[in-house]
Amino acid sequence: RRRARAAAVAVRARTRVVMRAAPERGAGKAAESVLDGARIDRSMTVHASSREYPIHFGVGLLSDAQLLGGLARGDKAIIVTNDTVGPLYLERVKRALENAGKEVSVVMLPDGEEYKNADALLAVWDGCMDAKLDRKSTLFALGGGVIGDISGFAASSYVRGIDFVQLPTTLLAVVDSAVGGKTAINHPKGKNMIGAFYQPTAVLVDTVALETLDDRQYAAGVAEIAKYGLIVDRDFFEYLEENMEALIARDAGVLAHAMQVSCQRKADVVAADELESTGVRATLNLGHTFGHAIEAHEGYGSWLHGEAVAAGMVMAAEMSARLGWIDRDVVRRTEALLARASLPIVPPPSMGIEAFMRFMSVDKKVEAGVLKLVLLRALGEAVVTAEYDKEILYDTIMCFQQRLKENPGVYMDQGAVNSEDRVGAAFQ
């Protein structure tokens, strides 16, 4: 509780709402790109039941006045970003919108998962109120998953819904959180427990923004990319096995292919089950129940979301093998692939059965007191189920504690985050 109160105070202290006047008439040519050579390289469409919208991949999209201005229906726009991304990309987005004739205001939030809370949400609402936005106004979410989730939730509820556009600047946001319309804030007792399903009007992936992403954040996005191979696309998993070093090295062709396949798989699942009512969409949460418990236990921001999901996916694969659903070889391949990306493949050493169950008991997939888990029936096939022996779940958690006892040095290395000298070898 002390950590939550401190985070709330920090948000109020560090949040800035910056008002911008509309540009004078004739100041710059409306609907022109600020950056010469801005281009869309590839587009796809998300066919959600509530709204269809495009995902555009390209270069210079954050500076394209014609593109950004065309996505803002009314005269006013608000940009929500954070104090890490803002200094890098805010000015070009703001200038593009102003060149398109829009009156632009800005909300600058502190960076970090620990600030994905009600105070940050209130700061966005305050910015909307101060700017006197109306139902034709548009919110632009410039940042990673935290900014996208907070912004989408704010947009879903301000005047009962305004348009919002995702401008993801992290790999994880590109391949996961920016697509599909899940918006939320965290609660001290559980991650993403308060939110709404609310689709953006567009997702613009400017690959220039990924060039400034640090290696740890980049690897966190790779974890979500690997997830699609595990849950729905065995061929893609094998592609990643063949190309992981190139992906980590940010080879342009491999990265583009990985992003586009991931977004298409996410779009397909969202089209089939937008509101997670049939169980199809819930398969996207492979590793997330374990991972969210890790994030909550360690303190939001200590482990990146993708890092926690990586360890969680290994735990889900381990449990699937113990249930006899997959071969042990699938577990080894999962560990090896994630380790090659320098991702943790074991949970924190401090987490035993009691810690996991305390946080998993408030997971969103708990229904009538029964915890549903996303597990693997095969490589490339996931299932959401409550049909498992609880003793197998306990044994799965305890097996990692046993590994810690047997070889603490290797375990600590394989579970390390934010470490430059992490070896990251998979268990043999």
What does this structure look like?
The structure is a single chain. The chain has 428 residues and is an alpha/beta fold. Helix content is 45%, strand content 19%. The strands form four sheets. An eight-stranded mixed beta sheet has the order 1-5-4-6-7-10-3-2, with helices on both faces. Strands 8-9 form a two-stranded antiparallel sheet. Strands 11-12 form a two-stranded antiparallel sheet. Helix 7 packs antiparallel against helix 8, helix 8 (234-248) packs antiparallel against helix 9 (252-272) and helix 11 packs antiparallel against helix 12. The longest helix has 21 residues, at 252-272. The two termini are 40 Å apart. 52% of the residues are buried.
Keyword list:
two-stranded antiparallel ribbon; about 425 residues; disordered C terminus; globular; 14 strands; single chain; disordered N terminus; alpha/beta
Brief write-up:
The chain is of the alpha/beta class and 428 residues long. The chain has helices at residues 2-14, 65-70, 86-99, 118-130, 145-157, 171-177, 215-231, 234-248, 252-272, 288-298, 305-322, 328-340, 353-360, 390-406, 408-414; strands at 16-19, 39-47, 52-59, 76-82, 103-109, 138-143, 163-168, 182-187, 190-197, 202-206, 366-367, 370-371, 373-378, 381-385.
List the helices and strands and how they pair.
Elements: H1 2-14, E1 16-19, E2 39-47, E3 52-59, H2 65-70, E4 76-82, H3 86-99, E5 103-109, H4 118-130, E6 138-143, H5 145-157, E7 163-168, H6 171-177, E8 182-187, E9 190-197, E10 202-206, H7 215-231, H8 234-248, H9 252-272, H10 288-298, H11 305-322, H12 328-340, H13 353-360, E11 366-367, E12 370-371, E13 373-378, E14 381-385, H14 390-406, H15 408-414
